[in-house]
Amino acid sequence: MSQYTTYPRALSVLTLVALASVVFASALATQAVIAADKPKSPVKLSKKVQTVIERVERQCRERPVYMIGPEKAKRLAELVRQKKPRLVVECGTALGYSGLWIASQLDANGAGKLVTIEIEPSRSREAKQNFAEAGLADYVEAKVGNAREVVREIDGPIDFVFIDCGYSNYLPCLTGLEDELADGAIIVADNVGIGASGMKDYLDHVRKKYRSRTEWFELDLPWAKRDAMEVSVVDSSAGD
Predict the structure, then answer these.
(1) Least CB-packed of 87, 109, 115, 170 within 10 Å?
(2) 44-238: what fold?
(3) Is this prediction's pTM over 0.70?
């Protein structure tokens, strides 16, 4: 009798162990995916590109013109290098600081195009000159206009998006691009630490719809000493 009453209990223990193993394996898999996205080695820049980037950085600090700074720029460039995108869209060109980092990695990968959008014509002209001086003009198409409208003119598939413009424009820019996003596309949004309240609708959207995480950085910028970027990955298998 005891032989038959203990057998179901043994099954229950085995079932619990199996379930625990599945949960543990899933957690490890998630950690592995996130770890795989972390920087593996320093981003390398040619001397020509480095010289232009350093000059533009000085100009941005002095004028000032808001930029992401080297700490976040290196992470952005690493993500581009890992992804090897065919098409990148940037909302907010300014003087081309982040665009230089992005285009440098397209050049390193030997392929790809950056479409960058700036609302102020004078800044767009400066950025185009900076891309040319860095030898990266062939990888960049600079558009002038309101990013939330211009994005609707871009045909995909889009593999990578970087958003760094007015906070209220983050969500409209993304939704204007979403139908053209490739499966596995990476979306990076800047200033989600200092500007979280102004882009709450955007953050709610990506955190609900995509695999998304916040990455924090210690900075040395006149306007910010600590800030974050939101890194989101499009995954059609996850559903809305």
Answers:
(1) 109
(2) Rossmann fold (3.40.50)
(3) yes
